[in-house]
Amino acid sequence: MDYALQTRNLAKNFGGFTATNNVSLNVEAGARHALIGPNGAGKTTLINLLTGFLEPTAGHVILQGEDVTRLGQHQRVKRGLARTFQINRLFADLTVLESVTMAVNERLGLGARFWKPVGAHGQAVEEAVALLDSLRLLDVAHEKTRSLAYGKQRLIEIALALAMKPRVLLLDEPAAGVPTTESRELFESIAALPRDVTILLIEHDMDLVFRFADRISVLVGGALLTHGTPEVIANDPKVREVYLGEAICA
Ligand SMILES: Nc1ncnc2c1ncn2[C@@H]1O[C@H](COP(=O)(O)OP(=O)(O)OP(=O)(O)O)[C@@H](O)[C@H]1O
């Protein structure tokens, strides 16, 4: 099996509290893999361990077969790991095209030269335009990011992560705070991303998870409860017990 991202017996303690408990996760190359679990299950902590924002207490993170446990965040990005955040991190006063061009520039090592006219960096602009086109965002290219609907802003954050040309994209609640009317469209755009980008997604909205994911891992109390296809997860009594009272449907 070809895995894009794996953890081996990963653990994280905060003082005497175990937030990540011996997690061995396998994310297949090309998968749309969702990480679910109740509040406080340790999903964000696990993502932070994967990106290198947090150092594990024990265990390993393996990115495309390479042990990256000792590498910093920047080095993991260079090796193809990108993420989005739960909170909005856009520069409100830049246009969509300026924002994405800046991200491409950063990857190309040209620095974040957002004070220069975007026309100054032909290659980066061309690439940014192609990226916006693939996400059906060209019509808003010259609008300020702050003027856009929140669902579109979240999509632009994904565009910024894609500008890093990742092999693995970690999406931390991309639909958080997005009205239901917009979240469907947002997920359609995420579902249409090319399969050469593996996606690991944290999402609370079970309806979106079951529409989107082809693999699901369930975290409870910092440990992996189970994993499998959406059908297997939806019919697992252990999972139903955890989500008692919440709708789980395949
Ligand atoms: N820096 C920290 N110091 C101490 N405890 C922490 C820290 N970060 C997280 N925790 C604790 O670890 C547990 C897991 O938190 P985490 O944010 O990873 O869960 P989550 O599954 O992402 O939750 P949610 O769905 O609510 O975002 C929680 O009990 C949290 O209080």
TrEMBL record:
Keyword Nucleotide-binding: yes
Keyword Nucleotide-binding: yes
Domain ABC transporter residues, every copy: 5-246
CDD domains: ABC_Mj1267_LivG_branched
One Gene Ontology term, aspect cellular component: plasma membrane
Keywords: ATP-binding, Nucleotide-binding, Plasmid, Transport
GO function term, MF aspect, one: ATP binding
Pfam families for the chain: ABC_tran, BCA_ABC_TP_C
Protein name as it appears in the record: ABC transporter ATP-binding protein
